[in-house]
Amino acid sequence: MLEIKNLQVKLEEEDKQILKGVDLTVEAGKVHAIMGPNGSGKSTLSYVLAGRDGYEVTEGSATLDGVDLLEMEPEERAAAGLFLALQYPVEIPGVGNMTFLRTALNAQRKARGEEEISAGDFLKLVREKAKTLKIDAEMLKRPVNVGFSGGEKKRNEILQMAVLEPKMCILDETDSGLDVDAMKLVAEGVNALRDAGRGFLVITHYQRLLDHIKPDVVHIMANGRIVKTGGPALALEVEQNGYADILAEFA
Ligand code: ADP
Ligand code: MG
Ligand code: MG
After folding, report:
1. Rounded distance from Cα 243 to ligand 2 centre (Å)
2. Where does the ABC transporter domain lie (predicted)?
């Protein structure tokens, strides 16, 4: 489904190589986790896949179901089924949460040549998804993320994901700054979306999220590359021993 080959990326502004040849395939139905020290390029990888400005791909490819992502505009990538839950969700003053969700969903439908969702169906859909995430009616009416707590923002990211039903979900440190209860809610929201046709790339610093979102595959990223890949036990190993052993092995 998501296939990344020898992806090399530098900053546009300065001559700094950030990704130095990332190879990664996430199959439909699987959850892949990426862990790694700060500054190893995890967020950069997610930004480049989502199409954020400021990065130049110098080598390699990234495709979703065989379609080249790197040539697309960010909204085309979203319509193709890619979703990125941000480490720092953005606030959008003046735009109600419901309006935002409906606009995003309809834009995606339009790009796929589908009809707009009816007001009734939309309301039903959002209420159902919001319930799992303990997002109340008042939060749905407020401007997107404005004045939301850290936990509310992250849950709201998962709500967007649940409403848009992407094929490929990338979560960048969605657990950072969350207390245990908020993290469990986020994990439940993600688990509810797990399905044979959907892939996940879960970027996290901490093993504890992976207690709740059980990954199929764990990758360690360091210095712009995936340096080790294993099963869930690899995350436990990192939790106990840190990255030093793996990095030494790699060097
Ligand atoms: P991670 O998410 O693994 O912590 P990042 O992808 O955020 O890592 O960053 C990887 C490296 O790229 C870091 O050294 C970071 O300082 C650098 N970097 C990323 N974006 C920028 C930028 N816009 N300007 C300067 N340095 C950047
Ligand atoms: Mg970081
Ligand atoms: Mg990061």
Report:
1. 15
2. 2-248
Looking at the predicted complex, does its ipTM rise above 0.85? yes
Residue 102, Cα to own-chain centre: how many angstroms? 20
The response to whether residue 44 sits with its C-beta less than 6 Å from ligand 1 reads yes
State phi, psi for 15 to the nearest 5 degrees: -80, 70
The number of residues making up the chain comes to 251
Q: Global pTM?
A: 0.93
Give me the residue label for tokens 């130049």: 56
Strands (DSSP E) found in the chain: 2-11, 17-26, 31-35, 55-64, 67-68, 82-85, 92-96, 143-144, 168-172, 199-203, 217-222, 225-230
Q: How far apart are CA 229 and CA 238, in angstroms?
A: 12
Nearest CA to ligand 1 atom 22: 11
As a whole number of angstroms, the distance between CA 150 and CA 145 comes to 9
Integer Cα distance of 49 and 70 in angstroms: 7
Strand partners, 22: 7
Q: What is the pLDDT of residues 124-160, one digit of tens each?
A: 999 999 998 889 999 999 999 999 998 899 999 999 9
